[in-house]
Design a protein that fits this description.
The complex is a heterodimer of chains A (113) and B (113). Chain A has 113 residues and is mostly beta strands. Chain A is 0% helix and 55% strand. In chain A, strands 2, 4, 5, 9, 10 and 11 form a six-stranded mixed β-sheet that branches. Chain A has a five-stranded antiparallel β-sheet with strand order 1-3-8-7-6, with no helix packed on it. Chain A is globular, with a radius of gyration of 13 Å. The N and C termini of chain A lie far apart (41 Å). With 113 residues, chain B is mostly beta strands. Chain B has no helices and eleven strands. In chain B, strands 2, 4, 5, 6, 9, 10 and 11 form a seven-stranded mixed β-sheet that branches. In chain B, strands 1-3-8-7 form a four-stranded antiparallel β-sheet, with no helix packed on it. In chain B, strand 4 and strand 5 form a beta hairpin. Chain B is globular and about 40 Å long. Classes of the chains: A mainly beta (113), B mainly beta (113).
């Protein structure tokens, strides 16, 4: 079955430093979504990428979808304490719109003030 | 502001008991999902539904059942709870349009003793 891996599993950064998490799928994806889960909370949808090579930005967050649609990345510029949480990618299978999402293993970000 | 509601928020129950976790959404979403998540870990799909009278099994479904009699309601039932069922259960929904992410409920934290 489809597997989605994320690296690193944990990341500790000083406030103001940049952060990147990488997501890799064993199969080609129809789309990829990113979620943020605060400690003790539930996942919150951030963005969806659909096109090969797509890049989207949300303020300090930059999301990329690989050319082969098998990998993705999330980059945060100048981290803030509000960025703390676990970031999950979730890959959609081939039937876009009716796919089951396979969630990645997550990257837990902690910020050192 | 939550438009998808899960009850109970916390539940401690004895081994062998039958339990139903409730999930309701007021957004009119066709697609609904149940995920299981251990603390800090990835989400595993248990069941999903694409609409009324539609239910499908996910990766961890063998010990639970769901029903979808009404669009807004998607309960999950464990016929005989075991300590291995101790986890957080997250319900999510998504509209039929393809460009929307999942909206998650706050979850039910289940402990089986």
């Amino acid at each position: 079955g489809q597997q989605v891996m994320q690296i690193p599993q944990y990341q500790h950064v000083q406030e103001g430093e940049d952060f990147t998490t990488y997501c890799n799928s064993s199969t080609t994806l129809s789309n990829i979504q990113w979620y943020k889960q605060r400690p003790g909370g539930h996942p919150v949808f951030l963005i969806q990428l659909v096109k090969s090579g797509e890049v989207k930005k949300q303020k300090r967050l930059t999301f990329q979808f690989g050319e082969a649609k098998k990998n993705s990345s999330l980059h945060i510029t100048a981290t803030q304490t509000t960025d703390v949480g676990t970031y999950f990618c979730a890959g959609g299978g081939p039937n876009f719109g009716n796919e089951k999402l396979t969630f990645g293993t997550g990257t837990r970000l902690t910020i050192i003030p | 502001e939550a438009d998808i509601y899960q009850t109970p928020r916390y539940l401690v129950i004895g081994t062998g008991k039958k339990i139903t976790l409730e999930c309701s959404q007021t957004m009119g979403h066709d697609k609904m999902y149940w995920y299981q998540q251990d603390p800090g870990m990835e989400l595993h799909l248990i069941h999903y539904s694409y609409g009324v009278n539609s239910t499908e099994k996910g990766d961890l479904s063998s010990e639970s059942t769901v029903s979808r009699i009404r669009t807004e309601h998607f309960p999950l039932t464990l016929e005989s709870a075991r300590p291995s069922h101790t986890s957080q259960y997250l319900c999510a929904s998504r509209p039929g349009q393809r460009n929307y992410g999942y909206t998650f409920g706050s979850g039910t934290r289940l402990t089986v003793v």
